[in-house]
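Morning. Coffee machine broken again, so started the prediction first thing and wrote up yesterday's gels while waiting. Chain of 386 residues, entered below exactly as on the submission form.
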Amino acid sequence: MIIAKDNAEKASQAKTQFVSTISHELRTPLYGVIGITNLLLDEHKELAQSPHLNSLKFSARYLLSLVNDILQINKIEENKIVLENLTFNISDEINLVKNALSFIAQSHNNKIIVKVDKSIPEYLIGDKLRLAQVLMNLISNALKFTKNGEVIVSANLVKVENNANFIEFQIADNGVGIDSADQEKIFEKFVQIGRNENDYQGTGLGLAIVKRLLDLFKSEITLESQVGVGTTFIFTIAFDHNPDKTNEIINNIKVDLSTGQIFKILVVEDNKINQTITKKIIEKYNCTCFIVDDGYQALDVLDKDVFDVILMDINMPLISGFETTRKIRYKGIQTPIIALTAFAKDEITEEAIEAGMNDIMIKPFEPLKLFQVINDQIKKTKNAVY
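Came back before lunch.
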């Protein structure tokens, strides 16, 4: 029993390390995809309405969300994921999913029809990324099992309690249907039901993730299906409708650059693509950017120059971001240091604080959010000095 216990603990540690490594390796190229897409939209304003670029951007963000959840499915099951409060428009979110799945729809000669109840408020508050992930899984699943048909996505306001608006979503297809004997199995992990065909591909995780995400929303999913007729998935989520709170959320992501002050920012990053993206983001906000490839170069530069803030990668050759930060603090330099990392935040927070870092940004990140953090840290440093 002792040997079995030791082996189980070693296997668990190996799994944790594997998940951490894969998470980092996947988030890093996703930072490049999302960042370059944003750069294209910024530098070529004529492409702002391009459905292809917008679908690319949305799909990359969805993939990031999917990667995070698949790699941390144990956290979903243990309810360690906390839903975010973001303001969003339901029609916009559904249409983004529709556009992102247009290729699958065309490949099976299907149509996606969207029906949104006009009585639903224009702006709601909730976790729109998790909602999009649920919709993406259900709609793509419907499209895969439907040929020469249609998938109808509908959202209806079924009741209102105080600020809570209960929205019922239905995803209905006229595809091959699911046999009654298989309907209970489809929400289990790694289960794939043939539905009378043998050419469907996938991980078998899609509907399992849907069920677990809806558990976070305190919602249940039901289905109605008949072989040869089609399938309808139904679930209801309560979203807040609060105009004052919506304005507060919007204002919280706005960065006050009205002072016209130009910050001088040192970026410590070894990945060339990430260097380009971060530099473009910084220069877009009229700040100056100096880039070094590793921690030793950063230490040399800081002996000769002064910066308002330092953006520090964690996983670098020669010397890590943590050790670089320790050496910077040992020199007595109090410049705010913000970690830019592809590691999960809960994995590095303790070590980051111990090393002397001031905050953490997980790649990919929203540029506005980054500058909000930069502004906050610079203000804190100035207040501490005065």
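The first strand starts at residue 86 and ends at 88. Going to sketch it on the whiteboard this afternoon.
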